[in-house]
Structures are given as structure tokens and as C-alpha cells.
């Protein structure tokens, strides 16, 4: 398989002939959580890595590009809570908004995505740790960024 061609097609999808390219949030969540069902919490690091890889493929270079991409693609409403330390908030998160509290975060993919975007913008390696999430009983997601 030529993964470069697949990546290009994923980032520039051909329009569908009859249906548009929007996806129902319930279907998105079912696809998103299948790895967790079969791999348990072991899927967390895989989802984090996948989010980081997506950010690297998109190569968004500014905070405004990240904010607009997330809003335009209905991922969530991204804002900067603090610059020192860097804390990023996501309201209306596509993955977890309205899901039950489970005493652990849901949004490892989003954490990886945010970390990848921060690395693109600042040119420094980092990790994003989710400290607020519906899974932890919050109404929003919040990520603390640690530069390595």
C-alpha cells in the first residue's frame, strides 16, 4: 500500500456524488470508541498517536489555523486558557460532550492532535495531558501542555 497516496486522499477527499461529507456524531463516536471496546485502555496511546499523526499531516502552523480547523470540522471550540503554563480548552467536544462520567478522560485522540499542533506551531516536542473531560465529570475538555 502506498500510504502517501492514502494520506493525500484523506486530506483532500473527493466530493461524494449524492451524500455530503458530513458525518453523524453518533456514528463518529461508535467508530471512535471501537478500539476501546476491543483493546481496553490500551487503545489510549494508539489514539493519542493517531491524533498527533493527523496534526503532523495537516501541518497547521498558527493558533488561528488550529482554532478555525477545529470549528470548521466540528471537532470543538478551541481556546487558550493560559500561556504559562500552556493550557488549551475545548468546548463542545465531538468525542465526549454529553457522555457519562467514567472517572477517566475520553479524549486521547484530541490530546494527541493538540500536542501535534503545538509542536507544529512552536517547533518543540511536547505532551498534552487531559485534566478536564466529560469522563472526569466536566462540561468541557482541558489540556495541560508540557514541553519536553
Describe this structure in words.
This protein has 148 residues and is α+β, with helices and mostly antiparallel strands. The protein has one domain (24-147): Muramoyl-pentapeptide Carboxypeptidase, domain 2 (2-Layer Sandwich). 44% of the residues lie in helices and 18% in strands. The protein has 5 helices and 4 strands. It has helices at 3-11, 25-39, 43-58, 63-72, 108-122; strands at 77-83, 86-91, 126-132, 141-147. A 4-stranded antiparallel β-sheet has the order 1-2-4-3, with helices on one face. Strand 1 and strand 2 (86-91) form a beta hairpin. Helix 3 (43-58) runs parallel beside helix 5 (108-122).
Could you outline the blueprint of secondary structure elements for this entry?
Blueprint: H1 3-11, H2 25-39, H3 43-58, H4 63-72, E1 77-83, E2 86-91, H5 108-122, E3 126-132, E4 141-147
Antiparallel strand pairs: 1-2, 2-4, 3-4
Q: Assign the structural class, choosing from mainly alpha, mainly beta, alpha/beta, alpha+beta, or little secondary structure.
A: alpha+beta
The domain tally reads 1
Give the strand content.
Answer: 15-25%
CATH class: Alpha Beta
CATH architecture: 2-Layer Sandwich
Characterize the biggest β-sheet. Answer: 4 strands, antiparallel
What spatial order of strands do you see in the largest sheet? 1-2-4-3
Return the string of H and E elements: HHHHEEHEE
Number of strands: 4
Quick recap:
This protein is an alpha+beta fold. It has five helices and four strands, in the order ααααββαββ.
Q: Key terms for this structure?
A:
single chain; about 150 residues; alpha+beta; 5 helices
Amino acid at each position: 500500500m502506498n500510504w502517501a497516496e492514502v494520506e493525500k486522499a484523506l486530506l483532500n477527499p473527493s466530493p461524494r456524488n449524492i451524500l455530503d461529507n458530513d458525518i453523524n456524531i453518533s456514528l463518529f463516536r461508535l467508530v471512535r470508541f471501537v478500539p476501546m471496546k476491543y483493546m481496553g485502555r490500551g487503545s489510549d496511546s494508539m489514539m493519542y498517536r493517531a491524533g498527533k499523526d493527523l496534526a503532523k499531516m495537516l501541518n497547521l502552523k498558527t493558533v488561528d489555523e488550529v482554532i478555525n480547523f477545529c470549528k470548521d470540522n466540528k471537532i470543538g471550540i478551541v481556546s487558550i486558557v493560559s500561556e504559562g503554563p500552556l493550557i488549551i480548552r475545548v468546548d463542545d467536544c465531538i468525542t465526549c460532550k454529553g457522555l457519562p462520567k467514567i472517572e477517566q478522560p475520553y479524549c486521547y485522540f484530541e490530546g494527541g492532535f493538540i500536542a501535534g499542533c503545538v509542536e507544529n506551531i512552536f517547533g518543540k516536542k511536547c505532551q498534552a495531558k487531559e485534566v478536564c473531560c466529560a469522563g472526569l465529570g466536566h462540561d468541557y475538555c482541558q489540556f495541560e501542555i508540557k514541553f519536553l
